[in-house]
Amino acid sequence: MVVELGNYALMLALLLAGAQAFFGLAGPAFKRDRWVAAVPSAACGQFVFVALAVGALIHAFVTNDFSVRYVAENSNTALPLFYRITAMWGAHEGSMLLWILVLSLWTLAVVVRSRYLPREFAARVLGVLGLLSFGFVLFTLATSSPFGRLIPSPADGNSLNPVLQDPAFAIHPPILYAGYVGFSVSFAFACAAMIEGRRDQLWARWMRPWTVSAWAFLACGIALGSWWAYYELGWGGYWFWDPVENASFMPWLVGTALIHSLAVTEKRGLFKSWTLLLAVSAFSLSLLGTFLVRSGVLVSVHSFAADPTRGVYILVLLCVMIGGALTMYALRAPAMQSNAGFNLLSRESFLLFNNILLTIAAAVVLAGTLAPLISQTLHLGTLSVGAPYFNPSFLVPVLPLLALAAIGMHARWKRGGLTEARRSLLWLLGIALIVALVLAFGVYGHPMPLVPVAATFGVWIILSALIEPINHLRRRTRLPWSVAGMCVAHIGLGVLVLGLTFVNSNSIERDVALKPGQSAQIGAYRFHYGGGQKVVGPNYDAFRGTVTVTHDGRQVALLHPERRQYWVQGTIQTKAAIAASPQRDLLAAMGQNVGAGAWSMRFQYRPLIRLVWFGALIMALGGMLCVFGRRQRGPVPVAAAVPSGTVPLGTGATAAGALAAPTLSVPSAPTAMHSVMPGGGPPGTGGKGAA
Amino acid sequence: MTPRRRRLVWVLAIMAGVGLASALALRAFRQNVTFYFDPSKVAAGLVKPGEGFRLGGMVEKGSLVRTPGTLDVRFVVTDFKHSVPVRYAKVLPDLFREGAGVVAHGHMDRNGVFIADDVLAKHDANYMPPPLERTLQRTVASGGTAGAQAAAALADATRTSGAAVGVH
């Protein structure tokens, strides 16, 4: 009964989304004031009914209602309650519902903040969001409703895929979707600006916080996904250049370009049409990602249920939305030209380079992702494109990007030239070079040729991002929130680069077959297999090994890798054991019983891998600082009618801003980052000792 | 510089950048793309020894042989028309099973044995990689006992009991 109500609620949400789209787009066009006034209510109502539908599905999971097909396929009475709830987004149908929920949450957020926007503009933004929502709700109802019944109902369900029974999985999809779907707001703002044919650049100011928050969510989501794949898929990789990973990475790259070009558009009124195009592309790539993941046209470790008819539907949706937006772009963008000039060494041109390089990087990833599809369609043979293509090609645009990032932060707007930071930059480059050389040759040893280069850029970016905060500290002036956020995000980038550099160059991985009492040497670490025993978990049996890791004769870790067999699906799954520390991760995973009392096992040493995820989180934190710092400035004055109580721009920020600081949720990240700086590092590890 | 000249320089710089990037990307593509072959294509002599590629097919039932106490395994990958012996010396993925699908990366040695350096795992047990499915469908279409076996393998994989190992 509850499930039927859920289905009904979703249908009502469809109608309300339709109403939201119609009133939002037609209201301002026909100057119907009452239509415009109805839009926020429709959006709120849509959220309420989507939330009810989600609630109904979760209720079915919690109460083990196996007469619902989706519940029967993805849950089980033996599944702990927490995973019964997260099983809601464990497969295609539920994750589409989650997608819709996230979209309606973003819509609700736009409604809440819309009092700072001109009424008609807000209505158009909501109208576009309503159109998107309509498309996706219709898609869910028509091709992938999670509310279908299964008669006769089974006594027990098929259970959740074991790799999804994990706390990180509980939060990964919602956060990733918050990022993915968040770009729909930027898209809607861009469409609204094009529909109105605005010649000013206010829309960029309005769009910016939304874009930055979506970008920050996406960074967190990608980092979480990578972390989850690292420890849960069992074999210790953190990035596979897999189509699904690429699908989330491309919007992020374009989103990064977008937040930089929005800065130029907002501050100087330049790059307007380019910014619009980026906003459309970022969301198009999100949709393309959804299409690739959901249609199953590409094979991936992460793709679950795949169905061609769904693919066709999403493809049609993609063409309608993106085709519409691009047509409008072709009609309206030429009117948005601006003729202001800027010098070669100005902030504008650095940001332009940033945009070009990021776009090239995204294009490189897109080409590699689509190549197998194209080759297959043209009957050129089945091929796969992996790290051997992506790694070198991606570095080509990204290495110069890193170098420019360190300098660009200190370039002046318009007439150009570097600020007084020019001399410090050169000094810092020297320091960065020394630190990088010490790290590459002294601490880690056996570097590949690009390692010192990448490490230098990483350290240089971090140091360069510290110049501004230190200057403000010296002069005892307040650092504006947006600048602080920018610096933090760039520090995050530097940390990420350092992590990626050393984890790629100095990881050691070895597969061995060991009998109890035997050991294997992985770099400077000795992995000793002490034997194993059978253990029983809440819904699985396991063989659990005991591995002690010593370093210079001193025990540094005790690992318990497991090989689990889940009762319900009978799936066998490796649960790797990881000893994490800021300088390095040690990983042990059980393979199979290979006879003669021996087990096959995989051991890994990965230096600084934590910096990869920390770096991404610090970047996201930087984005959040920009968004929340800015919000405290008070409402942005709206074109003609300035609402009462508006704070003039640039003032009144400090008191409110200081209040906002404690509410940020990751206060420990910067401290944690300092503690993981490669101070001591593991002593010389002998490089790639594998094989 | 006049604005016009400056714009020209910009455009040229961007075009040069894009051109360089596409040239490099194309080069990287040609060198680093991996092709997928099934045992019939291998038997037809489409691959040279030492050339890296992905081999896909079903693990023949009863073909898995381990050297006890070591990582070394041998098994046979088949599309029910032709088969290729495979050697591997690393940890096999969780979903590797006799009678299930498999995709492995490696090269042929001089004796016609596929030396795998990676057996690829996929975390969905009911999954059949599309190229493998097409291979089996071709075998089914060719009829005979091989066709019947391939049809059984396909049916098995689409049932919940079937397990497969896929591409990542």
Brief digest:
With 691 residues, chain A is α+β, with helices and mostly antiparallel strands. Chain A contains 19 helices and 11 strands.
Overview of the structural elements:
The complex is a heterodimer of chains A (691) and B (168). Chain A has 691 residues and is α+β, with helices and mostly antiparallel strands. Chain A has a domain at 164-333 and 346-412. Chain A has helices at 2-30, 33-62, 69-74, 81-86, 92-113, 119-143, 167-196, 202-232, 243-268, 272-295, 308-332, 347-377, 387-408, 421-444, 450-475, 481-506, 609-631, 653-660, 669-675, and strands spanning 383-385, 508-514, 519-522, 525-536, 540-551, 554-559, 562-566, 572-575, 577-580, 584-595, 598-607. In chain A, strands 3, 4, 5, 6, 7 and 8 form a 6-stranded antiparallel β-sheet that branches. In chain A, strands 2-11-10-9 form a 4-stranded antiparallel β-sheet. In chain A, a hairpin with a 3-residue loop joins strand 4 and strand 5 (540-551). Chain A is globular and about 80 Å long. Chain B is of the alpha+beta class and 168 residues long. Chain B has a single domain, classed as OB fold (Dihydrolipoamide Acetyltransferase, E2P). Helix content of chain B is 38%, strand content 24%. Chain B is built from 4 helices and 7 strands; from the N terminus they run H-E-H-E-E-E-E-E-E-H-H. Chain B has a 5-stranded mixed beta barrel with strand order 2-4-5-7-6. In chain B, helix 3 (130-142) runs antiparallel to helix 4. The longest helix of chain B has 30 residues, at 3-32. Chain B starts with a helix and ends in a 10-residue tail after the last helix. In chain B, 39% of the residues are buried.
